[in-house]
Automatic annotation (TrEMBL):
Gene source species: Champsocephalus esox (pike icefish)
Biased composition (Basic and acidic residues): 1-13
Domain (WH2): residue spans on this chain: 64-83
Record field: compositional bias (Basic residues): 14-26
GO MF annotation: an example: actin binding
Protein name per its UniProtKB record: WH2 domain-containing protein
Chain spans, region Disordered: 1-32
Domain of life of the organism encoding this protein: Eukaryota
InterPro entries registered for this protein in UniProt: WH2_dom
Amino acid sequence: MIAEVIKAHEAGGKKVKKTKGKKGKKGKEETSSILKELKNALRPVMAERRGEEGSRPSTPMRSAHDQLMESIRNRTGGGLKRVEIQHHLR
C-alpha cells in the first residue's frame, strides 16, 4: 500500500500544475519530505540497526520482516509475495 502511494505520488508529480507564491513551494517540500520518510520506512531492519547496540530481534524475526519489506519494495501489479507469519507473532 505504501509502495502504491509512492508510485502514485511520483507519477502524479509530473502532472501537477505550478502554483504561484510561497505556498506551492512549501507544500512541495513537505510532500517530498513525507515521501522520503516513506521510502526510509521500507529499508531492511538490518540496515537500520547496524550502528545500534543492545538487543536485536531474533534472526527469523528479522528475515521475515526483511522479506516483507523487500516484497513491498519490489511489488509488481501481480501482488505481494506471501510470507508465513511466525507462531509467536500471531
